Amino acid sequence: MSGTSGLSGLSAAVGPVTFKAACPDCRARFELAAGALRLAIGGTRRTTFYSFVCPECGRSVRKPAGDRIVELLTGGGVSTLRSL
Question: Which residues span the domain enclosing 69?
């Protein structure tokens, strides 16, 4: 993730947040803006994942999201859906 300072209460000019990602199908590597990702937080590790559409091949990609990934994505402004 880039463009964040991690310091609260400090005024600083920061650019848009981007996340590095890779497509398991075409193996392309790229950066995505927070708006290109979706995070689903479920009741278990199995139902907690993030998803995006590969900008190279157009396939939908879904990957598991552990606690650290959830923290990074939510902190970076990724849209989150919570299910129980």
Answer: 18-82
